[in-house]
Amino acid sequence: MSEEAQNRLLETSKEDVKRKFGDSIRKYVKENYGCFETLIEEEALRNLYSYTYVFNI
């Protein structure tokens, strides 16, 4: 998969994570002094495993 496609999927995953879990992650960051963007990035990478991919050759 091209780097461009990988970046696009990661950005889509980040938006999904923010939409689904953004409030919970913000609360966790506030209570534990973490970095919101770092946690979003980590959760977005985990979230990629829940996607179903279709490759056309």
Task: Characterise this structure.
With 57 residues, the protein is mainly alpha-helical. The chain has one domain. Helix content is 75%, strand content 0%. It has two helices and no strands. Helix 1 packs across helix 2. The longest helix is centred in the first third of the chain and has 30 residues. The termini are close together.
Topology:
Blueprint: H1 3-32, H2 36-48
Helix pairs in contact: 1-2
Order of helices and strands: HH
Mean pLDDT: 91
Report the strand count: 0
What's the Cα radius of gyration? Answer: 13 Å
N-to-C CA distance: 12 Å
Features:
single chain, 57 residues, elongated, mainly alpha
In short:
This protein has 57 residues and is mostly helical.
